[in-house]
Amino acid sequence: MALKLPIYMDYHATTPCDPRVFEAMRPYFTEVFGNAASRNHQFGWEAEEAVENARKQAADLIGASSKEIVFTSGATESDNLAIKGVADMYYERGDHIITAVTEHKAVLDSCKKLEKRGFKVTYLPIGPDGLLTPDDIKNAITDKTILVTIMMANNEIGVIQPISEIGKVCREKGVLFHTDATQAIGKIPFNVNELNVDLASFSGHKIYGPKGVGGLYVRRKNPRVVLVPMMDGGGHERGMRSGTLNVTGIVGLGTACEIAKNEMPAENERVLGLREKLRKGIMEEIPDVYVNGHSTQRLAGNLNMSFAYVEGESLLMGMNDIAVSSGSACTSASLEPSYVLKALGVGEELAHSSIRFGLGRFNTEEEVDYTIGRVNEAVNRLRELSPLWEMVQEGIDLSKVQWAGE
Amino acid sequence: MAYSDKVVDHYNNPRNVGSLDKKDPSVGTGLVGAPECGDVMKLQIKINPETQVIEDAKFKTFGCGSAIASSSLATEWLKGRTVDDALAIKNTAIVKELNLPPVKIHCSVLAEDAIKAAVQDYQNKQAQPNKAEEAAGNA
Q: Is the pTM higher than 0.90?
């Protein structure tokens, strides 16, 4: 099969809808269009049945019961609902929340909002491999702690936190535990009981489902978690999320969950093979390339690399028929390099030089081969253009140079 | 991140990439920016001491496409100019020529700084010929 350009290798940002998901959704646009809350006619019943079927598909993927799934507009909403909903419900028990510096902005900014309202938040630093230890959590918990929120897999560097052990610590201390599992659920095995989680956020479009739909797992017993809703209205989703259900999207999310559950082992093996081929193909050809984050405790599809002496955005430009992303400041609206890479202790110059490859379901071996060639060609060309590379070849220690711009 | 055609052209076909002998008293070297900021430009000019005309210009840049294009364009403009004319090059002219968006204006500022630093280095060497080597090393 001929190689089709451009190549998509940014699966952490979003994934294409699986054609099987799209087919499952199709009738729910024009034929089965009822409101799932219409209890008195066929149209409503059919919509409700579809929603409940999807709820079961989602619950089955994570070892939960159907009643523990709340559908939302996506993981950002789920994170907001979990964190603010717990804070508003349990503030009389305590005012302390624990999270980590490498969390997604949906978690960090929810915590910051609560800080403005008087809550106290601990932002745990991470190790040079991107990981926390259960002791980090244990040592941070006080008698005022009501919630620990730690993501399972990081969206930039793909590292997988020891969620089961962290959950155990929280359980022992009687503190609720939320995990932003947006990049994890559907990609790696996830069982709410084995992992000891009380709340878990997930999203449709990260697992080959549609955008605009996600879910929040809310534990119903041992302990029973109650949330104060953010949306007031018709009392949908057991009162936790009012608003007419996005039936079409929910059907898509459910189908995506079922496919993920069935195909996860084979898919992970295949994607890991592609990633390792990519990693070796680059690292065997170019010197001074570093992998950011733990080398094995990471998502199969994630490869985050820094190419020393080459700026990330210019590298993206040099391989513009491959869609990837960079931690370089120039690619962000804030003009700051990636806070996740900075938290790893990667020097800022290496954060500017980073590229995130996100491999997934529809990538092929041919695409990886092509990408290796393009990356190596672009890095070599840009190094010929780089005054830093030239200085290093001359034996100059860049850390000892007094830069005019500092 | 939509680049103008001119930025893309300079990125794909950068003019005057390379290095001049920084120990040559007729060569001025400007090294501006810092790796932590994501931009470092090295711009060099070779000046005819008799005429004060820039006979050659070379650059190397670590930075985004707009930074590469700004320095590439600067070398094009510098060749054949006198030192005084070189100092008259303003970053706003680079912005206009390359159609840089507001977030990339700092790239043009860096290019203007590099021109000034290169001229300054040349003038320092002319004033104190025996310290030329040291000055270039500290640029």
A: yes
